[in-house]
Amino acid sequence: MTAPFAVVGAGPSGLGCAAVLAAEGPVVLIDRLPVPGGTAGWDGREIRGCVRQVRRLGVRMRLGETALRWDGGRLLLAAPGRAEWLDAAALFVACGLRPATLADWRVTGERPAGVIPATVAEHLLQTGVRLWATIVVAGDGPWAAAVGRSARRLGTRVIAVSDHTDHTGHTGHTSHTDHSDHGDWADERHPRPKQWSITGRDRVTGVRLEGEAGLTELACDGVVLAGDPVPARNIDGAVLSDAAGVTYVQPLTPLDPAGRFHAAQDAARRWLRTYREG
Amino acid sequence: MSARPAPAVEVDVAVIGGGVLGTAVAARLSRTTASVCLLEAENDVCEGASKGNAGVAVAYYGPPGTPETALINASNPGWEDLCGRLSVPYRRIGAVMVALDDDEAARLEPTLDEIRACGVRAELLAPRQVRDLEPLISDRCVAGLLMPDEGVIDPMALTVAYATLAAVNGVTIVLGSRVSAITAAGDGRSRITAGAATVTARFVINAAGVSAGHISRLAGGEPLDYWPRKGQYAVLDRVFAERLSHIVFSTHTATTKGVNVVPTTHGSALLGPTAADHGDPGDTSTDPETIESVLRSATRLVPAIRPEHVIKYFAANRPASDEQHRLRFDARVPGLLHCTNRSAGVSISPAAADHVLELLTAAGLGARPRPGAADALPPAPRLRAEAEPGELVRRDPLFGQVVCACEHVSAAEINRALQGPVPAISVDGVRKRTGAAYGRCQGSLCLAGISFMTAMHTGTGPATVRQTARGTVGS
User: Fold this and answer.
1) Which value, in Å, is the radius of gyration of the alpha carbons in chain A?
2) CA distance B436 to chain A (A)
3) What radius of gyration, in Å, describes the C-alpha atoms of chain B?
4) CA pair distance B447, A114, nearest whole angstrom
């Protein structure tokens, strides 16, 4: 029996990749969550369709398992009560997107409490608890609008700092419950600065923006990092672009589930052509 | 055992300061018949200089013949044993000091003499030998020094382990209690007011780091001058840092030890520190110019370092003083023992704690070895450290529940951090104890989960859970 292709990440991109690879050989699709769909959610109509499609093609799912290490021919998987190596002919990484970090943006200043990634803010806001009086949403990645809307719904004033003034920005994680509101999600907008810094000792008290217009100081009690999506890479041995036997299929755009499904299908087809040739 | 302010405690020894020196002293005394209380101003141990430590357990810090060097020499051979007993990550990987021009090469010889005068091993290396040892070092290297006894350590894990050992052995640990008064209580004892707690003690150890001058003043002791010396650091992703096999030191000058490249026990690398004296101990801000200079200096040593390898910046203040190492009784207040060091606190901590016990015993503390006292902690396995984690995960299923995806920190490790004798009470406290959220995504994928776990263990909610020792996630 030939070793399967291992695809890590069962969101739209991983599902698209698996759907194409299944024509060539056995595929194992792995996700740390116990359901497929990733950040697109498990219950949307489109996602359900994608999942049905890959299941029909014979893709095996290992859900609730985390891929830890890749050694070029084996993938170490961990789940509660079990950790084992899976032989794999090749590894495909579609682990989703995460927002730029403070370091990615060269943000200096203090490191107080109250500065958090948008992916974390989404989860915290889902509890329905009002967390802040005024937040700065930094960047206009796929989470920004969802965070801005959830926070405003809970009574938080939202200041957006980003390149674009496109007020209809795509909604991220919580989008499938949020189709009704396509209006602006910020109370105030500022252009992205050249240099950011954070102020506040115990908790954040503000953000200093230094840009072409000079220095702007925004007072806030929360900062949400929601910009410049980066594909998450956290499997040891499958982080660098030239890692042996590894193909990265997570697209930065488009952002809608169907678009990502198709983009990853294209990436997998390109890989397959080279694979068949050589 | 810990954390809750005791209304009134009477002990033989009160230790002020939950940094690496204070906790080391508490751990050492906890193995004797002396009764001990540790007071810390912040809500967790390891919140000051020890948190911003470069993570090197040095073999050489120079100059020879000083009490500091004697303590480093006494501590250094024991790291494998101590860290084994306390389950603290430590690796004796050795260091290479690099000279990049003739001026620097000329300074290596006196440095070599000084290292040897300290009784520490070192040897001169030709450029080719340097590059054979550490291929990432600049090809402009003209000479080097190999210092094989240098090691890297997790300074936060060490401090927490000292505190945990102390707590296991019955030391009362009072957190979140800033000392506000120290008065004479008769019979040569001191009464310390710290938050809601009052502690009466025969001996007071002043291990308050940059606040040691303030503590001495409160006690009516010598007017000691301490000020913060800020060091800024950049942290490199382990995809790059794991290619380094040694600590890379700059050539020392008369005034500074310079910026170094230090692999961490987590697999990342620290670039830094800088040194800037200032007047505000609460200021741990970074600035773009200094971070730029750290990267420039580090890239001079290791040219393959790229700005995109940087996953975090931070700064910390170490205690600068006119007396760089102060481990002695106060000249005015009997029973007040100062215990501070400029920046080698980790490296002297085991022997400094032994020395404190000797000084106290000589001053009349009746402290005998206590039979049955623990000198080790239960093993604290980490998922990431296991080449074949199958057995670990079978033994405790939660080791297979990965919470921090970048650093591969499991739910078992996070629960352990939240439940120990000196538990984490904040998300940052979990990071300090486990390395969770320390990786390239800086918690983007795991901080929600860690926040919820921390909230559950501390009886708080999404807004009121502490993100750091000082501040909550929400407001």
Assistant:
1) 20
2) 13
3) 22
4) 12
B284 and A110: CB-CB below 8 Å? yes
Asked if A111 contacts A237 with a C-beta cutoff of 8 angstroms, the reply is no
Chain B residues whose beta carbon lies within 8 Å of the beta carbon of residue A117: 441-444, 447
CA nearest to B474, candidates B458, B457, B451: B451
Summarised one tens digit per residue, pLDDT across range A5-45 is 999 999 999 999 999 999 999 999 999 999 999 988 888 89
Report which DSSP code applies to B426. Answer: B
- Tokens for B79? 């790291």
Q: Once rounded to an integer, what is the mean pLDDT over residues B114-126?
A: 97
Residue B181 pLDDT level (bands cut at 50, 70, 90): very high
Q: In terms of CA atoms, which chain B residue is nearest residue A130? A: B463
Inter-chain residue contact B311 with A197, CB threshold 8 Å: no
How many CA within 13 A on the CB side of residue B138? 23
- Look at residue B7 in the predicted model and tell me its pLDDT: 64
Predicted model pTM: 0.95
CB contact residues (below 8 A), chain B span 358-417, against chain A: 383, 389-390, 392-394, 397-402, 405-406, 408, 410
pLDDT in tens, A60-91: 999 999 999 999 999 999 999 999 999 999 99
Burial of B205 (0-12, 13-18, 19+ CB in 10 A): buried
> Which positions in chain B touch A123 (Cβ < 8 Å)?
448, 452
Over residues B21-67, the pLDDT tens digits come to 999 999 999 999 999 999 999 999 999 999 988 999 999 998 999 99
> What value, to the nearest 5°, has the Cα angle with vertex B417 and ends B416 and B419?
65
Helical segments of B169-287, H only: 212-218, 238-241
* Residue of A62, A68, A135 for testing the chain B interface, max B β-carbons within 10 Å: A68
- At B387, is the secondary structure helix, strand, or coil? coil
CB B92 within 8 A of CB B82: no
